[in-house]
Amino acid sequence: MTSLVHVWMYLSIVIGGLLLPAHLMDSVRIISFEEFEKMANQSSDKLVIYNFWATWCAPCVKEMPAFEKVNAENADIDLVFISLDDGRRPERVDSFIERRGIKAPVFLLNDVDFNSWIDKVNKDWSGAIPATLFVQSDGKRFFHEGELDEDALINLITKLK
């Protein structure tokens, strides 16, 4: 693919709000916290779920199949994985996505000054992962720190829709 196509896809995803499935993206998209904020502040008629995770986080990896399953079964939600892996090694996340068959869009948040933005996601977030931000269609937010199994995730989604 040409670099112009990559630029167009990136702009469509980050600016236009188009969330392409991971299998349609050539690689994980590296974003800044400001780009994440733009994404999270976009209006949507769906419940948008941002799951913060990393390849080295066992509880994160454990909950991903439940998120993928629930996302596939619910047309009225959008799931976005936000990786907190090392931004200098996006190939590690690419490889993980490919091996695990991740379908939801995956972005790598390349902002190592976590303390400068964690409280902007949620004032009560300690910084531990997994963590999940739910943004309702009216813009209201709900934050959950910690692992979610499928039943807990479904219950939260039902409550927030």
What is the molecular shape?
A: globular
CA radius of gyration is 15 Å
For the largest sheet, list the strands in their spatial order: 1-4-3-2-5-6
**Class based on secondary structure composition and strand pairing:** alpha/beta
Give helix and strand order, one letter per element, not per position: HEHEHEHEHEEH
How many helices in DSSP terms? Answer: 6
State the CATH superfamily name: Glutaredoxin
Number of domains: 1
Contiguous low-pLDDT stretches (5 residues minimum) are 1-25
- Do you know the CATH topology? Glutaredoxin
What features would you highlight for this structure?
161 residues; Glutaredoxin
A few lines on this structure:
By secondary structure, the protein is an alpha/beta fold. It contains six helices and six strands.
Characterization of this structure:
The protein contains 6 helices and 6 strands, in the order αβαβαβαβαββα. The protein is α/β, with parallel strands linked by helices. It has a single domain (3-160), classed as Glutaredoxin (3-Layer(aba) Sandwich), CATH 3.40.30.10. Strands 1-4-3-2-5-6 form a 6-stranded mixed β-sheet, sandwiched between helices. The chain is globular, with a radius of gyration of 15 Å.
